[in-house]
């Protein structure tokens, strides 16, 4: 009977050792996968930063700004060059892009883009005059492409 108990203990210890070996192997595999993923994220982040830097420089050279706007939400993203075109500093939060629009009979660019998007139009191309804070007038061209957000499942 003593021999039977000892055999059971030995079998249990042997099984625990095999499970521990498998667990250690899985942990090592997960660490390697994490390290590879972190390396890819760092590489992609560097690529994205390089791309953003190139885009900012191209906009600066061409005097062509960009913005992103979600019609259903307040606020808007402006590129550095868009701030320069509008004559604003980055401490001003752009709530709408017709802040300095020269009053006229035509709807503002925001109203035109909103109307176009609401009626299913995906592209907008217009010229507009901006009345600058110093009283000067700037003529700008706006080219916009609506992008529909994919619906969540």
Question: Any overview of this molecule?
Answer:
The protein folds into two domains: 1-62; 63-145. It has 153 residues and is an alpha+beta fold. The chain starts with a helix and ends in an 8-residue tail after the last strand. The protein is elongated and about 100 Å long. A hairpin with a 5-residue loop joins strand 3 (123-131) and strand 4. Helix content is 51%, strand content 16%.
What's this entry about, in short?
The strands form two sheets. Strands 1-2 form a two-stranded antiparallel sheet. It is built from three helices and four strands. About 5% of the residues have low confidence.
Main features:
153 residues, alpha+beta, 2 domains, two-stranded antiparallel ribbon, two-stranded antiparallel sheet, 3 helices, elongated
Order of helices and strands: HEEHHEE
Task: Detail the poorly predicted runs.
Answer: 96-102
Mean pLDDT over the full residue set: 81
Q: State the end-to-end distance.
A: 62 Å
The assigned structural class equals alpha+beta
Shape: elongated
Q: Estimate the helix proportion, in percent.
A: 40-55%
Q: How many discrete structural domains?
A: 2
Task: State the major sheet.
Answer: 2 strands, antiparallel
What percent strand? 15-25%
Tell me the radius of gyration.
30 Å
Strand order across the largest sheet: 1-2
């Amino acid at each position: 009977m003593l021999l039977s108990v000892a055999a059971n203990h030995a079998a249990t210890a042997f099984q625990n050792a095999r499970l521990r070996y498998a667990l250690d192997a899985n942990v090592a595999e997960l660490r390697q996968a994490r390290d590879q993923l972190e390396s890819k994220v760092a590489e992609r982040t560097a690529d994205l930063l390089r791309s953003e830097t190139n885009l900012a420089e191209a906009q600066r050279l061409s005097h062509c700004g960009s913005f992103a706007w979600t019609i259903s939400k307040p606020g808007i993203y402006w590129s550095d060059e868009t701030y320069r075109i509008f004559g604003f500093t980055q401490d001003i939060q752009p709530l709408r892009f017709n802040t300095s629009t020269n009053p006229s009979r035509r709807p503002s660019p925001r109203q035109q883009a909103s109307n176009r998007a609401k009626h299913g139009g995906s592209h907008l191309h217009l010229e507009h005059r901006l009345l600058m804070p110093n009283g000067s007038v700037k003529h700008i061209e706006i080219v916009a492409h609506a992008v529909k957000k994919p619906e969540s499942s």
